[in-house]
Every structure is written in C-alpha cells, then in structure tokens.
Design a protein that fits this description.
The protein contains 39 helices and 17 strands. By secondary structure, it is an alpha/beta fold. The strands form 4 sheets. The chain has a 7-stranded mixed sheet with strand order 2-3-1-4-7-9-8, with helices on both faces. A 5-stranded parallel sheet has the order 11-12-13-10-14. Strands 15-17-16 form a 3-stranded antiparallel sheet.
Length: about 850
C-alpha cells in the first residue's frame, strides 16, 4: 500500500443488507449466493479500475483513484445485482457508502479517519442504496455516470464522527430511488420500528410522498378495512419524509376514546408529557413537523375535532392520519388503502414466477419465513398459496395470520382450515388485531344498529355482493343508500361499479365473520330466505328472456349474479333441508336456470343442483317436477347419457300429460326424439318429433314447432336427405327470427352448414361459416361455438387443407375436454368420416397438427374462417 501514501482516493464500502437472515434461510445454498454477489461486484470494480483493499464475509473495501470511477462502479454493480436472476424468494440488496479523502497506508491496509468515515456512511445506507459524502460529491461535479443524478439527504451526525456530514444519494436508472431515512444519529423522529420490509405499495408511497411533500395538503387520511395495512403504510411514508421535516411524531391513539386522552398521547409522543392542548399548539405552531395520528376512528367524531383544532391552531405541521372512516373536514385528502394484489388464475396452474409478482404472495412468503426460516415458494406449494391469498382477497392482516401458522399446517392443510386459523390469536399484535374477527368486530361496534343489521344481511349474499336495490329488498327498506354510505365510511364493506349499477360486497374473510354475527343475532335464515326469494323472481324473469331478443342481456345478468344464485340454491337445497317452501324455491330456481346452464356449459355444477332438487322433490308429482326433470334430461343428453335421459323424459311426459299441459308434452316429445336419435332408433325419433310438431301446431306454439323442426332436420341429414333438411331448417329459422330467438337462429344456421357440407355444397357452407365465425360467440353457448369450429375443420378437409382441418379439430376437442362438453356420438361420426381423409393425407405429421391445434384459443380458431376460401 506504500504507493498510495498521501494520495486522494475515493473509498467504497459495501455489504449485504440482512446477510445473517439470508444465511439462516438459505443454509447450505448461501455460499453460492455469496460467491455470485462477489463475482458480480468484482467485475464492476475491476472494470472501473478499483483496487480491492479488503474483503471479509459479505463486505468489500475498495478504493478508486477517481471519484467518478467509483460512482460508475457503484451504479454498474447495483444494476447488475438487480438484473441477476436470484433463486426464488431471495431478495439480495447491497448497501454502499463512498467518501473521498487521504487514507494512510498501514501494512497491507489503509487506515485513518477518512476510512472510518467511509465505513460509517455505508452503515447509514439501506440495501440497494448508494450514499456519498460532500467530499465525493464535489469531486464528481459534471462527471456523474450517464443517466444518474444526486438526491440531497441533508446533514447527519454519524457515530464517532465529530463533524456532521452532508450526505447525498446516487439515483441510478432502473433502481429504486425511495428509501427509508438513513440510519444516522440525532433523528428527532418517534416512529415505531417496522417489523420487516414493506411489501408492495410502491405506487402508494410515491403518491402519498408527493401529496404530503407540498404545503397544499396538510391533512391526508388513510382509510380502509381493519387489517388492510394502513399503519404500516403510514410509517413507511413517514420514514421517507423524515429527511425533509424537522421531526416526525407517531401517535398511537387506539386506546384513546376522548379528545383529552388524545392530546395527552400527542404530548407524550413529542416528549412533552403533561402539556395541554394550548401548550402543544404553541410548540407546534411554526415547526416543520409531520404528525402520524394512528387509529382515529374510536374518538368522538372519528377525531375530526382533534385534527381540525391542530390545523387551525398551527401554521406548518402536516398530518398523516389512519382511520377506518374519513374525517369529513375541510382540506382533507382521503386515501383509501386497498388490499394487496393477488395472482390471476387464468391460463391454468399458477407458476412460481407469476405468483411471486403478486404482493399478497410476497407478503405470505415474508411472514411464513418469519415463522419457519426454511419456508420457500415452490412448484409444490404455489397453487395452494395462491388459493389462500385469493380467498383472503389480499387482506394483509388475514395473510399474516394465515402465514404465521405454516409450522403448524403446510399450505394445502392451511387452505382446508383457513377459517379456523383466522380465529387463532396471534401474539405480538394489538388485541383488536390478534384475530380477524376481533378486527372486524372493532369496526362493527362503531356503527349503529341499522348499519349492523345491514352488515349481517350481506352474509346472505354471494362473494360478488349485490346491488343497492338488492340489499334494500333483503332488508325490506325503501333505499339502502344511507346505510351503505355509513358502512363504507366505517370501512366494513367495499363498493364496486358495474354496468348494472354500483354493487356492495364484503371481502370473503369478512363475510365469514358477518355470517357468524348473523347466526348469533338469529336473523341469518330470515336474510337468506328474503335473499333467495328476491333472486328467484329476478332469475325467472331473466330465464324467460333467454330465447328472445333480450337473450344476451339476460345471460349477462345471470352470469353477473351467479354467486348470488348459488347462495340461494345452497340455502334452498341444503343437505338437511326439510322446509317445503325452501325446497320449492330451489326447484323453481333450477327450472329458471335450466336453459342457461344447458347453453353456457355449466354442466357438472348444474347436474349437482338438479340432482339435489330431484331428490328433494321426489314426493312431488306436479308440473314443477316435470320442469325440473326436463332440465335434468337436457344435461344428460349433453353428457351422452341417452338411455337415462330417455327414462327421465318418459316420466316428464307422463307428468305433463297428467297435468293436461300440451306445451309441456310437445317439449318432452321433442327431447325424447333427440334421445332416440342418439340411441340409434331414427324411426322412433321421427315419430316423436312429428307428434311434437302436431301438438305445437294445434296450440299455436311457434317456439316448440321451430325446435322440433330443427331436430327433424338432423334426422334428414343422418339419412342423406339434405334438401329435406334444408327446407325444415329454413322454416325453423323463419320462426325463430319471428320470435326474436337469436340463439335459435344461430343453431339453425349451424345445422344448415352441416346439411350443405353433407350434400357436397362446400362453397355455400363456407360462405355461411364466415358469418357464423364472426357472430356465434355472441350467443354465449360454448357447445354451439365449438360446433362451428368443427364444421370449419370439416370444410377445410373437403377443400384439401388437411393441416388446417386437423388443427381446428384438435382445438375443438381440447376445448371440449377443458369445458367438459363431450361431442355426441352421431356428430363425432359425421366429423370423423371426413377427417379420416385428412389424417390419411398427413401421414406421420398428424400428431404435429394435433399438438399445434390444441394450443389454439377459440378466438384464434374462429379467425381462421377468413382464410378458408373455395377459390
């Protein structure tokens, strides 16, 4: 080191933040991570002519002949660390400190006050942060690395360093620029220590820092449900703003129920115990102070009077408040704190890489690691952890409560016992947050009896909640607007905007608490009964529009309210239900939803409900049972259970005949014709369909005539009588168009394509397919849509486009498997007869076309209609 004597050098110290915790977590894998970290930084240091003086454990001491080189090395090293793909769950962050001075050589090292100062500067930094002294700043004027800038952090006192030091931060492109206050001496803040790194909330931090960083906003209130992370976010914001104010004071008001107690807590937090309101206002008047007032909601007026007097009696202090309800005072900026993001489940099983990008999953892993240092997000547990976070809807407290039990229950078992786990007290939290129920009840007790009743009533709704009008119906009041407003202010509910109007709902974990409270109050059954009757009336109205011009709107409403319809069915057809009125409600709901289930592919779920309803209605012999059994038979036909469907339909026919219901008889005869066609008895099928048409004609029921004509046309196609089929379909389409039955028209046109293809009239079929490919998805019927794709495959095969034909057929087959909508035997025979030619033509590449086709989406397959031409 002798050649460095009296040389002006820039010294860089670095180490890994939280290296001991990282070692405990990674165990034997830690040396690999440490070695990678060293290799990355050494490349940057060497590239910028740095000289390594000392390396111990995870720390570096490197000197540079140029301050500009030192900053370039620091920036490049941090960027390379950030860009490296570390093992899942590893967040390696290195802190760096730089100072320029004249260290003294000693043996193989450097010593002196400048060396100590550089080390102290590094110790103030946070992981990922580069901090430098004024001396280094002066030496880099006009020579900063491209794209970087300096952020002044103010003057700080450092341990064992006599003179205060003005410190700056190097802001590096692509890396975080916001960090908590430096770990220096002499801070006048009274913030509680954070339990760990804040997960997510970067956008909120930036917005709140900007709001409170100006004099335009003196009061910002973080609002949200209990357990949404308001306090943690407030502390993080205060840490960021601490460098720009004289002091930050955190005031815990959770135990204060009167303003006098709140003023006392405020004085204690500022180190002025015993000061009264006037003393505190005088002390704060002209000071640049940030007050963090935590938990205002239980104070009189939710703390509005306290905060108003603070603002009116001072000129400069700013206030960041947390509360479950806004203050509603002049100048207040409300800032709702939403739950954390949850992973989407689209595209099948979630992957570790996708899940780790969701803040709720990252919080779960962080908290689980505190309970079990060996815990990690893996391919084996990722699906269960995602399911937990989604079920808890990203609510931070609920996630913390669940993750704390990973030593007791692995994620899969945790998912099965989630409600029970949320009720286990978690030491270390305030009593009101030791269980989710305690947190919810804290807010529940702060609203009036009318609002409490409304909160309990929401337990009867499904996970998607309901409209304000639906809540009013269940509560049997004229309007729910006032009660919703109060519950929203108390952060007990969420409101969401939909095309059908605003909706109110409970977070799923909160809904479980509301359910228990309704059971305790003895009004749950009343709410569920009223709820079921309300949605039954709406479902019957929508069900009656499913074959008319309003079919699309009716399907959209049923889809939106499906969670409520499930909740009503679950109440009406529960396993121990003996109440005849409840059973009747369930039967009517199943009947109203039967056609919707049939055309939209709710096969397995609808079968479960219909079986429950059939068992509950076993003693009944009236028209309602016939409607129910007919819906059940349609699903059996769709599943290919033709013999069972025939038997069920025979009972249905007898019930309608006994009730002298001619329209019902026509309906049953038509469906029996479909069953006998599938069973290979075309003569019997034809006779039944003709009889259905006769009855429908006699009672002037056009809908029944059109349906039977369509099914009669399929028999004609089977027999090779294309012209007869086309005549029947033309008449059916005319009737369906007259009735405004868009689905019926679409189904008739799909069957026309089949008739044309069977007759070798490919050009006409392709022209019709072009139109169907653009419009069929509007009907919301996956079976009909897949039928179009299969006919596209048939047409492509007849045109010699064998690769395209096999890919389209594979796409349809894959989608049928996913949706559990099998192709009927007759339709499969029709399709396979033509595709056999394509398979023979493609030879050994058939498997390749099948593989490619199964990766196509429905939209991509339908788009291929445009490429299908007969020219």
């Amino acid at each position: 080191m002798g050649d460095l004597a009296s040389t002006r050098l820039t010294m860089l110290f670095s180490d890994i933040e939280g290296s001991t915790n990282l070692l405990n977590r990674l165990g034997p894998a830690y040396p690999v991570v440490l070695a990678t970290h060293r290799r990355i930084l050494r490349l940057a240091f060497e590239r910028w002519r740095g000289r390594e003086v000392g390396t111990e454990g995870d720390s570096f001491f490197v000197v540079f002949g140029s301050a500009a080189d030192a900053l370039a090395a620091a920036a490049e090293g941090q960027q390379a660390l950030e860009a490296h793909r570390w093992p899942v769950g590893v967040r390696l962050r290195v802190r760096m400190g730089l100072h320029t001075g004249h260290p003294e050589p000693f043996e193989d090292n450097l010593v002196g006050l400048d060396v100590h100062l550089a080390a102290r500067v590094s110790a103030t930094a946070h992981g990922g942060q580069v901090v430098l002294t004024q001396a280094t700043t002066v030496d880099t004027v006009g020579r900063l690395p491209p794209g970087t800038s300096l952020l002044h952090l103010g003057t700080h006192r450092l341990k064992d360093i006599v003179e205060p030091q003005h410190l700056c931060q190097l802001v590096v492109p692509g890396l975080p620029a916001a960090f908590p206050p430096l770990r220096s001496l002499g801070t006048s803040s009274t913030l509680p220590s954070a339990p760990g790194e804040l997960v997510g909330r970067q956008e909120e931090l930036a917005l709140l820092s900007a709001l409170l960083g100006t004099r335009d906003r003196r009061i910002v209130t973080l609002t949200g449900a209990g357990g949404s992370g308001k306090t943690r976010l407030a502390v993080a914001v205060a840490e960021l703003l601490a460098v720009s104010v004289d002091a930050v004071h955190f005031v815990d008001l959770s135990s204060a129920t009167e303003d006098s107690a709140a003023w006392s807590s405020l004085g204690n937090a500022m180190g002025r115990a015993g000061a009264d309101e006037s003393d505190i206002l005088e002390y704060l008047h002209d000071r640049e102070v940030l007050l963090v007032l935590d938990n205002l909601e239980q104070l009189p007026g939710s703390g509005a009077g306290l905060v108003s007097r603070l603002l009116a009696g001072t000129a400069r202090p700013r206030i960041l408040a947390t509360s479950r309800r806004p203050l509603h005072i002049a100048g207040e900026q409300e800032f709702p704190v939403a739950p954390l993001s949850t992973p989407t489940t689209e595209g099948g099983r979630p992957t570790v890489a996708v899940a780790d990008r969701a803040d709720s999953v990252r919080l779960f892993v962080q908290q689980a690691t505190l309970a079990d240092p060996s815990f990690a997000l893996t391919d084996d547990n990722v699906a269960d952890i995602v399911a937990v976070c989604r079920r808890l809807e990203g609510l931070p407290l609920a996630i913390e409560l669940a993750a704390a039990r990973v030593r007791l229950l692995p994620p899969k078992a945790l998912l099965d016992h989630l409600d029970e786990v949320l009720g286990l007290p978690l030491p270390g939290h305030p009593q009101r947050q030791q269980t989710l129920r305690a947190t919810v009840e804290w807010g529940y007790r702060m609203v009036g009896p009318v609002e409490q009743k409304a909160f309990r009533a929401l337990a009867a709704f499904g996970a998607t909640g309901g409209t304000f009008e639906a809540l009013a119906e269940v509560l049997q009041i004229g309007s729910a607007l006032a009660v919703v407003s109060e519950l929203l202010d108390a952060a007990l509910i969420r409101t969401e905007d939909h095309q059908g109007g605003p909706r109110v709902r409970l977070l799923q974990p909160v809904r479980a608490v509301a359910h228990d409270l309704a059971v305790q109050a003895g009004d749950l059954d009343t709410f569920q009964r009223t709820h079921a009757q309300h949605f039954l009336a709406l479902a019957e109205r929508a069900g009656g529009r499913l074959k008319g011009p309003d079919a699309i709107a009716a399907r959209a409403w049923l889809e939106l309210e499906m969670d409520n319809l499930r909740a009503a069915l679950d109440w009406a057809l529960g396993p121990d239900t003996l109440d005849e009125q409840r059973i009747a409600t369930g039967i009517r709901l199943c009947t109203a939803l039967g056609w919707y289930w049939y055309v939209t592919g709710y096969d397995s779920e609808s079968r479960r409900w219909l079986e429950r309803a059939s068992q509950a209605a076993a003693k009944q012999q009236g028209p309602q049972l016939a409607d129910l059994l007919h819906s059940f038979a349609l699903l059996l036909l769709q599943r290919g259970d033709n013999a069972m469907a025939r038997n069920v339909l025979a009972k249905t026919l007898a019930l309608w005949h006994r009730a002298h219901d001619s329209a019902g008889e026509a309906k049953a005869l038509n469906s029996m014709g479909v069953a006998y066609r599938s069973l290979g008895d075309p003569d019997r099928a034809r006779a039944l369909l003709h009889r259905s048409i006769e009855i429908a004609h006699s009672i002037e029921n056009l809908e029944r005539q059109a349906t039977a004509l369509t099914n009669l046309a399929l028999l004609e196609i089977d027999d090779g009588h294309a012209e007869a089929a086309l005549r029947a379909l033309a008449e059916a389409e005319r009737i369906d168009a007259t009735l405004g039955n868009a689905w019926g028209v679409a189904a008739d046109r799909v069957n026309r394509v089949a008739a044309l293809l069977s007759d070798g009239r490919t050009a006409e079929a392709v022209e019709l397919l072009h139109d169907l490919a653009d419009t069929v998805t509007e009907q919301g019927d996956p079976d009909l849509t897949l039928g179009v794709i299969e006919l596209l495959a048939y047409a492509a095969s007849t045109l010699g486009k064998h690769e395209q034909a096999l890919r389209l057929a594979a796409c349809a087959d894959e989608q049928r498997t996913i949706s559990d909508i099998p192709l009927t035997d007759l339709d499969r025979t029709f399709l396979d007869r033509q595709l056999a030619l394509s398979r023979e033509a493609m030879g050994d590449t058939v498997a390749d076309q099948d593989f490619e086709g199964r990766s196509l989406t429905v939209e991509q397959a339908l788009a291929q209609a445009a490429t299908l031409t007969t020219a």
